[in-house]
Amino acid sequence: MISALHNLDRKNAKKIEKATKTINENKKKLSKTLRIAKLKKKKLLIEEKFYVLGVGITFSLNISNKLINSVANFFIK
Questions:
Q1: By C-alpha distance, which of 44, 48, 45 is closest to 56?
Q2: What is the pLDDT of residue 1?
Q3: What b/e string do you get for 57-74 counting C-beta neighbours within 10 Å, with b at 16 or more?
């Protein structure tokens, strides 16, 4: 009877060990995926800031160019 219980404990221990190993592998994969996602998010945020900055600069240059042209046209007339 004792040996039968010992065998059950051994089988359960192997199952638990296998499940724990699978969980640890999944945790590693998940943390790697999260790290990659964070890096991509950071890169996208930086690109977005530069895009907004570029649009702002372009818009400002267009306005200042039109302003300079209108002032120049006013003095020319």
A1: 48
A2: 42
A3: eeeeeeeeeeeeeeeeee
